Amino acid sequence: MQELLDVLIVGAGPTGLACAIEAVANRIKVLVVEKGVLVNSVYNYPATMTFFTSRERLEIGDLPLPSLNTKPQRAEALEYYRRVADFYRLPMHFYERVMAVKGENGNFRVETETTEGRRGEYGTKKIIIATGYYDLPNLLGIPGEELPKVSHYYTDPHPYYRRKVAVIGGANSAAVAGLDLFRHGAEVTLIYREAELSRHIKYWIRPDLENRIKEGSIQAIPEAEVKEIAPGWICVVTKNGKTLRVENDFVFALTGYHPDFNFLRRAGVEIDPQTQRPRCDPETLESNIPGIYLAGVIIAGMDTNEIFIENGRFHGKQIIADIQKKL
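Request: output the structure for the sequence above.
Response:
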């Protein structure tokens, strides 16, 4: 085991980076451990995605985000966060998953494993968990969900040109994917449970989608659920009990995501059984386990629309201020 760290941060998303920047600025010995790539969730957004917030709300470490547009694109954000990490010389390990947290406040042992199967162990006085929520999709739990034609992430429209594509979900991700697929030549069917599209769809996207549905460019099946997925079709059941067999080549099940609650539980963090919110001090963001802090969207439990980059980026200041007092 290496020299004892002051702080180990789990997750190299924007919130994890903001925490690391505060640590470095205060001369706190820190290491960021990330199971994927830098800002892994942003990397997995659609290739042509434009953020729904203005560039200044994505900024961390008092560094400006240069963009030609008020709302930056994914590629601009990736470049920005790379430059931020380089500017502050943040110590980070990528492709290394945290497997277990042992020990106690002031002397934690964090066990990890790389994608190549190498095991590691780090000693640290404090831990900040900033793992986000985008890595664990809300599964449908239906036959055929494991087929190669099914994905819970939408990235690029080109492979689906002239193919029959079902998009499951009525919120913003499904709306963006449906419109992008349609505009790149896919035959799109949008399937969602409610009678209306979600109120979380961005105000400039919703009328576009509604108009495409109204004119018949995108087929919509509201108040319905997909019950089975097969190689050439999907089975859809409507609210009134009608069963539809829809021809299909690909499925995007964009039904939302959730934090890794099991990881938090294994670390000893208490989770509310109803809201799935982890227990933590609202002022310091320290969990019920002394020395383990929580940052970013994981604080919100299942209400993942409550915390975004624009407010999660401030958690670093709260947490590091408290850690400084206790080191």
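The longest helix spans residues 74-87.
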